[in-house]
# Entry
Amino acid sequence: MSNLKKNERGILNWIDYRLPVISFLKHSAVDYPTPRNLNYWWNFGSLAGFFLLVQIITGVILSMHYTAHVDHAFNSIEHIMRNVNHGWLIRYIHMNGASFFFIVVYIHIFRGLYYGSYKAPRELLWWLGIIILLLMMATAFMGYVLPWGQMSFWGATVITNLFSAIPLIGDNITQWLWGGYSVDNPTLSRFYTLHFLLPFLIVGVVILHIVALHTHGSNNPLGIDKKGPQDSIPFHPFYTIKDLFGLSFALTIFFAVVFFAPDFLGHPDNYIPADPLKTPAHIVPEWYFLPFYAILRAIPDKLGGVIAMFSAIFVLFLLPWLDTSKVRSATFRPIYKILFWIFLLDTIILGWVGSKPAEGIYIIISRIATSYYFVHFLILLPLLGKFEKSRPLPESIGKPVLAE
Amino acid sequence: MSENIKSKKKSRRSFIHQASGAMGIVAVSAAGWPLIDQMNPSKDVEALATIEVDISELVEGQSKTVLWRGKPLFIKHRSQKEINDANNVDINQLPHPENDEERVKNPKYLVLIGVCTHLGCVPASDKGDFQGWFCPCHGSHYDTSGRIRKGPAPKNLEIPPYTFKDENTILVG
# Structure
């Protein structure tokens, strides 16, 4: 593993001979052979890692000033915004960082869907990614409760009540989650603890995600395996520089939002302190939950809605086997390419109806979009692999650019 | 012969393995239970689960909201018309069929947990298509007996356990 020898000089060699961290980093972030044809959609993995880091750093800082008690939580957020030096900046970064983390991860997921990155031998890599998504959702949900505004309180009430749909033990589970008979101080306190803990679990799963990634290497826009050394280039400097270039764009957009529209993605009702006696007229979750919220409301039955909502994520676990086509990249799958864009549109429509009140035409749209969501995974993809005629795959990744 | 002893020995050994494995599971579950049960409502939360409400000043048509177990509790002094409305319903047509008599101790006073049975929002009083309660979150309509009439909620508004301590005092919990 190490190309450093014990008799070589220098402090780094001395360390690496005893603890091979330097050769490990060199192996996985410098020399790591990467397909030479990755496009900019491959930036979003490292961007997601970047935003995770931003959330952890700003989150740890915020925790030094925040008080997790129903009587003080709302005021401690105002204290951060008004009194703490640069508190407004750190909180706005944390608030919008959550949204950008989701934007980046959703693009990362759709990249995987388009280029078939979930197919053999990357099924477990895909699974670890879904687990990260689930942990992110739990973390984001509990984080949103902490400011103890109206949306925090009623969002927490509605989401924890989802578990009351479970037959027989539903009410016991919700009481167990609450630590009482409603969302209250014990709930806030445990959500704070878990909101602090889960990001570090995410880091753990991210490490496994990277280990799985480096086992068979990155997929690529052609979706074919590397045939030899001519198909890959070292990660550094080629992709470190490409990732940094992409990061500069992401940061420009991110800070434009942080500085000029920090509350654009949030809900104004969350600046009203929580009131257990008064429900806001229109409850919506944060934007990144809207498609799933639309699926929940599309089903007229309480338990059915909850099952459909969770299935919308769990169906992703089955995707590597539901998609029966051997060809990875949509570039060579003319029909799948169309279905991919319809599916993307479908999720955007779901997000849109999720933000609307559940009445009239919106219910009909949400039902059609929900049906299509599952038809895409459970019917279209399994059949498509059998009937679709894919275009011929290129001989190798390097072939088109390495003439002769 | 020696084959036989060997297999007998083997089955004894695997029995020991399984038995100690089973004991291990019991031990881990027993040790794990306090770690899980600590999240259930604590003693002080349980202790606050009973309250007394004074209803002497509640005039006809008026309703009162108090906090019980962190949830709003609606106490409504119903008018004769509202009581009649609640009774003049064919209960077989209802999503959750219950007679008004089953839902009250004294028909003049309706005591409800003010939590929508859909996803836990607080319905607004004297609103909706049935002059009872209306939940703004997902559009559930309740009648003057707190029964679900229209919308996604699966059940009628829940009735807490309560008794009339005297004419003007309700003991809830």
